[in-house]
């Protein structure tokens, strides 16, 4: 994301980074800056003072991870789902519509 900003001669002033989406959106809702995040996350949370502006850029990517309990063996169906997803993720196109 930072590279994309620099590519268009924009230098963001990053004051805070967090993995807590609800906290980030609460800060934006109170007028403390802007946030860049997946539409799927922002659409789940309801804030009165926030609007989303889609970013359309085929060159940008997002890391997707599976989150599973540690120290617990993966079931055969879950392993199959993970493998299927890894094989097909490149062909998927996510949309905010």
Characterize the structure shown:
With 97 residues, the chain is mainly α. The chain has helices at residues 2-7, 21-29, 39-42, 76-88. The two termini are 22 Å apart. The model has no long low-confidence stretch (mean pLDDT 78).
Quick structural summary:
This protein is mainly alpha-helical.
Describe the structure using short key phrases.
mainly alpha
SSE succession: HHHH
Mean pLDDT: 78
Shape: extended
| Quantity of strands, as a count | 0
The total of helices stands at: 4
The description of the largest β-sheet is: none
Helical content class: 25-40%
Low-confidence blocks of residues: none
Beta-strand content: under 5%
* Measured distance between first and last alpha carbons: 22 Å
Helix and strand composition category = mainly alpha
Radius of gyration: 17 Å
Layout of SSEs?
Elements (H helix, E strand, L loop, with lengths): L1 H6 L13 H9 L9 H4 L33 H13 L9
